[in-house]
Amino acid sequence: MPISGHHPIGSPENPQRGAKQYMFLFRHGTWDEGLPVDEVNKIMDEVTGWFDSLVMQGKVIGGSPLVEGGKSIMMRNGQVAVMDGPFVESKEAVAGYLMVSFDSENEAVEAARTSPLFKHGLVTEVREVASECPLYARLRERTAAMAAV
């Protein structure tokens, strides 16, 4: 029951089939506030070295910093509402992401732990990319259960 043109990681049509992919979500992107420019440049040289090391190991699939702010779209009072947010002041605001490939979650976590930004308050969430949409997995299970009855 795939979405037309959509190839989950686990599908035979996806060239990344079998590879475990993880997303590093970087939160709290204003770590540099109040630091002298020279210090920020030194830290960013360390971050670039960390990133380049992951690239040289063939671990990086892609990623990007995100523009601060944005819009949140949600259902409110029966209507789809568009609101400002997430707000930059929020530690929940995602500042950027990095898609990586590792053999295990432990390996991904260990790589994330080596980021030089932790000592400056950056939070990194490591999430495995699902091999398929969880909704489709639940539907398949429900369909199988109904067929077994």
SSE map:
Layout: E1 21-27, H1 37-56, E2 60-65, E3 71-76, E4 79-84, E5 94-101, H2 105-113, E6 123-128, H3 134-148
Antiparallel strand pairs: 1-5, 1-6, 2-5, 3-4
What do these coordinates show?
The chain is of the alpha+beta class. The chain is 30% helix and 26% strand. The strands form two sheets. Strands 2-5-1-6 form a four-stranded antiparallel β-sheet, covered by helices on one side. A two-stranded antiparallel sheet has the order 3-4. Residues 1-6 have low confidence and may be disordered.
How would you summarize what this structure contains?
30% of the residues lie in helices and 26% in strands. The protein is of the alpha+beta class and 149 residues long.
The count of β-strands is: 6
| Secondary-structure content class | alpha+beta
Gyration radius (Cα, Å) is: 19 Å
CATH topology call? Alpha-Beta Plaits
What is the general shape?
flat
Instruction: Give the topology string: H per helix, E per strand.
Output: EHEEEEHEH
- Mean pLDDT over all positions: 83
How far the N terminus sits from the C terminus, by CA atoms, comes to: 21 Å
CATH superfamily: Dimeric alpha+beta barrel
Please state roughly what percent of the residues sit in beta strands, choosing from under 5%, 5-15%, 15-25%, 25-35%, 35-45% or over 45%: 25-35%
Task: Report helical residue fraction.
Answer: 25-40%
| Biggest β-sheet strands, sense, barrel | 4 strands, antiparallel
Number of helices: 3
- Architecture (CATH level 2) name: 2-Layer Sandwich
CATH class: Alpha Beta
**Number of individual domains:** 1
